[in-house]
TrEMBL record:
Protein name: ABC transporter permease
Pfam families: ABC2_membrane_6 (PF06182)
UniProt-listed PANTHER family: INTEGRAL MEMBRANE TRANSPORT PROTEIN, SLR0610 PROTEIN-RELATED
InterPro entries the UniProt entry points to: ABC-2_transporter-like (IPR010390)
Source organism per UniProt: Termitidicoccus mucosus
Entry keyword annotation includes Membrane: yes
Transmembrane segments: 7-29, 41-63, 98-115, 127-156, 177-201, 213-231
Biological classification of the source: Bacteria, Pseudomonadati, Verrucomicrobiota, Opitutia, Opitutales
Keyword annotations from UniProtKB, A to Z: Membrane, Transmembrane, Transmembrane helix
Length: 243
């Protein structure tokens, strides 16, 4: 019974948070017709795309990776070193956050509703491209948080770094076109938190370029490779210190 109540409570909390984001779009677009060239329902589709990635991230990985950082600090990480198999996979996938996964359905509904309002009729290839690019966006988010938490192998206190992930994801709900100058360099190129949602959304809107899709695939592979490299460097350091 306690599990059910906890699940229901957090599902409602996340649903409320998602509702606030959707309501904010409606309020903002009462005063403007376009933001960065994006109409109200295009923006809503972008936000729904961001929600899908974030709910998947929270549902599958966030609590596991956060706990992995805590286990390094307490020494309980030795348990994983004693197990056969890939350590990063084990620490990333121990448990599921069901309330976040439940709200993936709501996020998908936001995207479908927005697409309907825009009169979009994506084909099978468009939907397949959207799903592939969503997976790339999820890979980038996963890599960023693994990199941040992997610093625990060298730095004892990383709570601030972990928390900064949520601040970064706020930018994923904005159109790429609103970023200029240094902000464009940081949030589009250096830390690609903007393109992970903008490029998949463009796949449904019909305005995606093949070069952009290839760029996101390459960026996700590069960030994932970097995250794995840093994690294993830290893992070797931890193992040698524990022996």
């Amino acid at each position: 019974m306690m599990f059910r109540m906890d699940f229901l409570m957090w599902t409602l909390v996340e649903l409320f948070w998602m509702g606030v984001n959707v309501a904010m779009v409606a309020v903002i677009y009462r005063h403007t017709d376009s933001i960065g060239g994006w109409s109200q329902y295009e923006m809503l589709l972008l936000i729904g795309t961001s929600m899908i990635i974030q709910r998947l991230m929270m549902g599958f990985f966030w609590s596991n990776i956060f706990e992995f950082g805590r286990n390094i600090r307490t020494g309980h990480f030795d348990f994983f070193l004693a197990q056969p198999g890939n350590v990063l996979f084990m620490v990333s996938t121990r448990k599921l956050d069901l309330d976040s996964l439940a709200n993936v359905v709501v996020a998908i509904a936001v995207v479908i509703y927005s697409a309907g309002k825009l009169g979009l009729h994506p084909g099978v290839l468009d939907i397949a491209a959207y799903i592939l690019l969503l997976a790339c966006g999820l890979a980038v988010n996963y890599s960023l948080i693994v990199l941040a938490v992997s610093l625990t192998f060298w730095v004892i206190k990383t709570e601030g770094i972990e928390g900064s992930y949520f601040s970064l994801t706020e930018f994923s709900r904005l159109p790429r076109e609103v970023f200029r100058g240094l902000a464009n360099v940081i949030f589009v190129y250096a830390l690609p938190v903007v393109i992970v949602t903008n490029i998949p959304a463009r796949a449904l809107l019909g305005g995606i370029r093949l070069a952009d899709a290839a760029w996101l695939v390459a960026v996700s592979a590069a960030w994932f490779g970097l995250a794995v490299f840093v994690f294993h460097r830290g893992l070797r350091r931890y193992a040698s210190a524990s022996s």
